[in-house]
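Key result, reporting period 2: structure in, sequence out.
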């Protein structure tokens, strides 16, 4: 499956514009990290784009999130590595994240939300005014962007990246698509 088909499948199942933007942000982060970690940018990007394909269906059943998404992707004919990463990204399942791509999705998902929240508290509401240092400061504020699981973000160390490096890469990736994100 290519990116165009992945986009069609996402848009057929995800209506919420903020969730679409989140998916685009995670896709951008995954692509940028694939470049850094010697992964396949196309596959990693597709995983980022599709990781929440089931979210609107499972929003009231978080224990099914990722499992339903994996089933959707399996029925469509996506590669097993894509399916596995989507299944493993929800920590409530306790599924081992085996590959770099799985581990990258796990920490890229929440960091996109943290960075978005950092942009939204800027007077301009723009990513261009967000710095890696400001995101790092917000990491320590537990009441800020509560949904952004800090432990998941810190799991970037499993990729051989410092928190500072990871946030800088993620922020750069999101800034590159800021027009698509409306930030």
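The corresponding designed sequence is given below.
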């Amino acid at each position: 499956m290519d990116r165009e088909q992945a986009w069609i499948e996402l848009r057929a199942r995800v209506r919420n514009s903020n969730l679409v933007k989140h998916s685009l942000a995670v896709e951008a982060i995954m692509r940028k990290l694939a470049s850094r970690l010697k992964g396949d940018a196309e596959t990693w990007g597709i995983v980022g784009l599709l990781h929440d394909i089931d979210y609107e269906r499972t929003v009231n059943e978080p224990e099914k999130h990722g499992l339903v998404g994996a089933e959707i992707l399996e029925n469509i004919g996506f590669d097993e590595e894509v399916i596995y990463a989507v299944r493993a990204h929800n920590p409530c399942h306790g599924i081992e994240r085996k590959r770099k791509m799985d581990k990258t999705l796990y920490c890229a998902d929440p960091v996109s939300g943290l960075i978005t929240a950092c942009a939204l508290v800027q007077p301009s509401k723009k990513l261009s005014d967000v710095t890696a240092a400001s995101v790092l400061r917000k990491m320590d504020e537990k009441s800020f962007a509560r949904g952004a699981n800090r432990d998941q973000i810190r799991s970037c160390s499993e990729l051989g990246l410092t928190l500072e490096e990871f946030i800088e890469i993620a922020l750069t990736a999101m800034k590159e698509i800021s027009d698509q994100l409306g930030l």
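The mean pLDDT is 97. The chain has one domain: 3-181. This case is discussed further under Risks and Mitigation.
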